[in-house]
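Can anyone check this?
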Amino acid sequence: MPDNDDDLRPSWVPKEKNPEFACTVMRGIDSAVNSVTSAKYYPKENLHRIPLRKKMSVEEYVEGVKKGDRMILAKAITLIESNAPKDFDKAQRVLQALLPRTGHSLRIGITGVPGAGKSTFIEAFGQLLCQQGYKVAVLAVDPTSSITGGSILGDKTRMQKLSREPNCFIRPSPSGGTLGGVARKSRETMMLCEAAGCDVILVET
């Protein structure tokens, strides 16, 4: 850092005042030329590079979902929902390997206008199912904005008690512009939840 503190104080601060008169200002980089100055004060060896996440193999996805690992299940759903061409082949192989473990759960769809009480009902019903020993998955589909392309995905925050149940898995997903109240990959997501051992799947549209 610079030795001269006056260089880091605003120009309107009187020089005769104590340092407590105003805070100092960190000087930024004005142009690419000043990157040399930045390198002097902040050498690269002092910067810690964030390690990249290890890419999971198809076998790791399959084994994790079979064991009911919630984190790997969430990653597998993200893989299935991905529109990247590089993820399509791996997603199909994961689904193909888990296909024999699907089709045994009870699927229930819950729909209604905003404010009708869908999330309130799902939380109460989901807690009842968990108390009876069932493993529950809640797939909450949020509409995607046609302007920004984003979704709020706030359904999980309205089911705080249910989200703390160890036998419940809640996954908010954007509709992606798909009509009908469900997402484009809702069917594949339900198959993954069934392979993870879920007995009841609640789909909130």
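Reply from J.R.: I decoded it. The chain has seven helices and four strands.
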